[in-house]
Design a protein that fits this description.
Blueprint lengths: L18 H13 L4 H15 L1 H16 L4 H12 L3 H12 L1 H18 L3 H12 L1 H10 L5 H9 L5 H30 L4 H31 L10
């Protein structure tokens, strides 16, 4: 089995894995500080009043945000605010649809010139190693916020990873983080429609438990990236 050589200056640091949980805590705390009580009812009334059009508009905006260098995670929070738990499948659909164009454009028109410019034994070996382990590589990249989601899509198009591993691994890798962002939005929706305290506490407790799950996934991803030589091994005492 072909393996890529461990780089001397690893592009991934172990602390990167904690970015997701930290972002989760910051956004959850922000939900209690912003005046959602006035905004969310208006947003949900607009969505309900426009039916299918509201869903199409949300998906279209989500796709544009993913293609452009804009924070896609914020759209997942908006999905939770506007659609409740239905925001989860809609946000996943928006992420996957938005990941199509950058990948194919990069693969079709950019990969050839870039590979010719960077051609060399190390680059070819790394490209083969990534292609041989494409599914795992994409999923770990989606789980660890090393690069912004949009940058990941353009970068992965430059590799030899095939379309099906790219899309399936993207869906699996995005699922936990997207759920967390929609969950935060749903909590903001609960707080804005005067839900009882018990319901909000249950939602907050569930989010906390899910945050622990995200950290656990991150630790697994860290170990796997260490084995692949993409992150510096943690020193043992």
């Amino acid at each position: 089995m072909t393996t890529s050589p461990a780089p001397s200056d690893p592009p991934v640091k172990a602390w990167h894995i904690w970015l997701w949980p930290t972002l989760l805590v910051v956004l959850a705390f922000a939900m209690w500080l912003l005046p959602w009580g006035q905004w969310v009812p208006l947003l949900r009334d607009w969505v309900e009043g426009h039916g299918t059009l509201g869903t199409v508009v949300f998906l279209a905006v989500y796709v544009i945000v993913v293609i452009l260098p804009l924070p896609a995670a914020a759209m997942s929070v908006v999905g939770g605010l506007a659609f409740g738990w239905w925001g989860y499948p809609l946000s996943m659909a928006g992420s996957l649809l938005g990941a199509i164009a950058p990948y194919y454009i990069s693969r079709r028109w950019m990969r050839g010139p870039v590979m010719r410019r960077l051609d060399g034994p190390k680059v070819r070996a790394a490209d083969r190693a990534i292609a041989d382990n494409g599914f795992v590589f994409v999923m770990l990249l989606r789980l660890t916020p090393i690069l912004p989601f949009t940058a990941q899509n353009w970068f992965l198009g430059l590799t030899a990873i095939r379309p099906w591993p790219y899309f399936v691994a993207t869906a699996l890798g995005l699922a936990p983080g997207t759920l967390a962002m929609v969950w935060i939005g749903e909590m903001g929706g609960l707080a804005s429609v005067s839900s009882d305290r018990t319901q909000i506490l249950i939602a907050g407790g569930g989010l906390l438990a899910f945050g622990v799950f995200v950290i656990w996934l991150g630790r697994i991803a860290t170990r796997e990236m260490e084995r692949a030589g993409l992150t510096a091994p943690r020193r043992r005492r």
